[in-house]
Amino acid sequence: MQRKADVYDGHGANDLTNDRDLVLRVKGGQESAFKELFVKYGKKLYYFSRKKNLSHEDAEGVVQDVFAKIWEIKEGLDETLSINSYIITIAKNLIYNRSRKQLNQRLFEEYLVYSQRSKSHHETEDQVFFKELEGIVFEIIKKLSPRAQLIFKMNRLDGMTNSEIAEELHISKKTVENQMHTALKYLRETLVKRADINLVSLLAILVKYC
Predict the structure, then answer these.
(1) What is the pLDDT of residue 30?
(2) Helices (H), the chain
């Protein structure tokens, strides 16, 4: 969701006015205005993505995807809202989805390692079973407090350190550590209690989450 343009974007009044004019021109389909927007925010978005521990290639991919999305929905842009905040919001969603996809792949690879050590291995069945397990894990995470969910996802999906999370959320590192401890403990205890998860599958998940 876009928010009202304000000083928290680090932009002056003149810059906000220029952004509004730029957005209006983009809404009108002016490619020159879209290029101006890319030049103005593209590099900033790239470094924002790199700070989220994305590789050079992935960061460039996020920049391309964000601006492709903006052009796709240009008619719906609201010039009274902060385009800077809107760009960052789109980027955060893309990075989250990309990180979750990568995490899921790593988890599945771990599951296959354990599965191959068992008496049988059928990749198609493993994929179906793993998707069920992955769904269970994320359903458990949703039961955490909003703050604990955010910290957990920033750490496990975005790959941020406790110090980086503390700095971004303006809280102490100790608070982050306590929230992570609580989240991981709840996840472990809840998974152990579930009778429909066998030990092999449980270990495959815990290797990455704990």
Answers:
(1) 93
(2) 13-27, 31-51, 56-72, 83-117, 123-141, 146-156, 162-169, 173-193, 199-209
